[in-house]
Every structure is written in structure tokens, then in C-alpha cells.
Design brief:
Blueprint lengths: L2 H11 L9 H13 L7 H14 L6 H10 L4 H5 L8 H15 L4 H13 L11 H12 L3 H14 L10 H8 L14 H7 L11 H25 L4
Helix pairs in contact: 2-4, 3-4, 3-8, 4-7, 4-8, 6-7, 7-8, 8-12, 9-12
Bound molecules: fe (ii) ion (2 copies).
The site of one fe (ii) ion has 5 residues, from helix 3.
């Protein structure tokens, strides 16, 4: 096997295995893959949210609402990220894009409305809250993927993308006043660091979970992050 083919094989291996999806969902998954390519909020995140939402679902969950909602929830993410005007909300645009794809794939009107509600409300910042069980599960799966080991890994990927440092030992309150907007957006990205992301944002995510199962998983993930960042501080200070 030549080097190029080996490379392609390796890249494919790191993608989440979605072979258990039915042909109808495979088609949706392929469409979503075309839209997403960035590392921290890309297709891998969608794969994890899909698997987590299956973990959070129970016998009463409408799977034909939850599965397409999980697959499609961030379809407009890159459109929002590359938008210069700041007016695109990926939850809102994503719901519109999803509608078209769902019609093409033969979903009925009532299901489409329920799926759109999940996508529209998955984003905490948009101010709309999930009302249905499926929407709550999707929101929870999305939040859980920002914390725990994955949350730590994602915060370091973002740190690499924006040239942040590994760790910043500063007063968190003072830092927040100096470098966060009122809505909590980072002003100067180079001043940010994963431990500050943890202290100011990731720590609070567990409070935004809806379902009991997600709350249990969230508690565990939170404790893991707490111990990781405590240890990171110790190691950076040269302690054992
Ligand atoms: Fe999102
Ligand atoms: Fe997401």
C-alpha cells in the first residue's frame, strides 16, 4: 500500500463508525458530513452527540425524532462560524436546512416540526428552551459533549487553533471582567486558556442539564474535569 492510501485509511479510521445507521439516516449523515469539516465542532462531535443521545433515550423516546435531530443539529455550524455579519444563528438556520433535507427524505410534516423544535432549542445561548423529551435529550447530549475527558480535549484543540497558552494562573474574576463580554464571549482569544474556559464556562454546564440520566453523567464528568485541572495546576507549579 502506498503512503497516500495508508494516509486515507488512517483518516477514515479516526472517523466515528456510523455503519449501524439505516439507509435513510446514512443519507442524512453523508449530507451533514459535506457541511462540517472543522475539528472541534465538526462531524466527530455530531457522531458523539448521536451516540450519547442513544444512551440518554429510553423506551418512550421517539427515536425517529431524536436520531435525525442529533444528526442534523449542527449542520449550520460552519456557516455561522464563517459568517462575517454575526447574524447567523446555527440553531435557527440549521432547523431551516434540516426541514429541506427531511422533506427530501420522506419525513412527514408532524415529525419534521418535532425535529425542528429539537434543533432550534439545542443551543442554550439562543434563549429558546426545549419543551419535548427528545429536545431535552438532544440538548443534554450536546452539553455533555462539552465536558468530561472530551470537553478537556476539545478545549485544548480550540486552544491550539487560537494560539492560546496551556495554562494561565490569573485571578478568574479579574480575568472575566477584563476579557469577557457581557454575553460571555472571549474578547482577545490569545489571552484565553483551557483552565479559564473550565473555570468560567465548562464548570457551569452541568446546571443546564434537563434529564436525570444526563445529570448523573454530568456530575461524573464534572468531577473528572475538576481533578484534571487541579492536577494540571500542580504539575505546572513543578509539584509532584
Ligand atoms: Fe450547536
Ligand atoms: Fe452540537
Amino acid at each position: 500500500m502506498d503512503e497516500e492510501n495508508l494516509d486515507i485509511k488512517e483518516k477514515n479510521r479516526s472517523k466515528p463508525d456510523m455503519s449501524s445507521l439505516s439507509p435513510r439516516y446514512q443519507k442524512i449523515w453523508e449530507r451533514v458530513k459535506d457541511e462540517l469539516s472543522s475539528s472541534s465542532h465538526g462531524i466527530d462531535h455530531t457522531g458523539r452527540v448521536y451516540r450519547l443521545s442513544k444512551t440518554l433515550a429510553d423506551d418512550e423516546t421517539e427515536r425517529d425524532v431524536l436520531t435525525p435531530a442529533a444528526l442534523l443539529h449542527d449542520i449550520a455550524r460552519e456557516k455561522e462560524d464563517s459568517d462575517q455579519t454575526g447574524e447567523i444563528d446555527h440553531a435557527r438556520l440549521g432547523a431551516e436546512m434540516a426541514e429541506e433535507i427531511l422533506i427530501q427524505n420522506g419525513f412527514d410534516e408532524q415529525k419534521i416540526e418535532r425535529i425542528k423544535h429539537c434543533i432550534l432549542t439545542h443551543r442554550y445561548r439562543s434563549g429558546k428552551r426545549p419543551k419535548t423529551k427528545e429536545a431535552k435529550i438532544l440538548s443534554d447530549a450536546d452539553k455533555l459533549d462539552a465536558i468530561g475527558a472530551v470537553g478537556i480535549a476539545r478545549s485544548f484543540i480550540v486552544a491550539g487553533e487560537y494560539d492560546e497558552v496551556l495554562y494561565r494562573d490569573v485571578d478568574v474574576e479579574y480575568y472575566a471582567q477584563d476579557n469577557l463580554t457581557e454575553e460571555g464571549r472571549v474578547i482577545e482569544v490569545q489571552k484565553h486558556a483551557p483552565n479559564l474556559e473550565y473555570e468560567l464556562k465548562l464548570k457551569k454546564i452541568k446546571e443546564r442539564l434537563f434529564t436525570d440520566k444526563a445529570k448523573r453523567i454530568g456530575k461524573e464528568r464534572q468531577e473528572f474535569m475538576e481533578s484534571f485541572f487541579r492536577r494540571l495546576k500542580r504539575e505546572i507549579e513543578g509539584k509532584k
